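Standup notes, structure subgroup. Blocker cleared on the zinc ion input:
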Amino acid sequence: MAENDNVVKVTGYCVKCREKDREMKGATEVAMKGKGGVERKAMTGTCAVCGTKMFKILGKPKTE
Ligand SMILES: [Zn+2]
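Run returned:
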């Protein structure tokens, strides 16, 4: 499996296409405050097919 080694493909759920494994274009990592002030990492981007905004919570709290 050696396609594009340094390009990380981010996929998420597109509510418009109802597609679970849709490629996210222009995916950007963001930090958002969750319950109790806990910071969570999430990805935002747009559906590669219909351009709808997509959102994916990464669920892995990262400490830097
Ligand atoms: Zn879509």
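Discussed briefly. The CA atoms of residues 1 and 7 lie 13 Å apart.
Next: hand off to the docking folks.
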